User: What shape does this take?
Amino acid sequence: MRVGQITELAALIVLALALWQDARIMLVAALCVFAFGQAYIPNLKALASAVAPELRGRSLAWNNAAMYGGMMVGSWGASVGYQTFGLRGLALAGSIVLAFAWLAAGTISEAGTEDA
Assistant: This one.
């Protein structure tokens, strides 16, 4: 999961640089890398289903609710951010948010290994 996040982070930074220099080749490359970087999402589903069988349905339901809720809030935030800061600013803001998510995933991962 963290590899996918760092891939997305790199793609967002390249996207911001591509928009700064109007480099369309870098823009297309960044968007492709970003799309491929999201391949970790099935891993999140697997983690959500790796619970006791009687809780699996509830766990997956909460995971889906959180994912779609996050997409809704993210879409709203992106539309406001795009109008305010443009695509370059939005890519930089996304990089910052993704960097915090990467750090949080590492903290959670380390805490999970200590409990085991």
Remarks:
- The CA atoms of residues 20 and 88 lie 7 Å apart.
- The chain has a mean pLDDT of 81.
- The chain has one domain: 2-115.
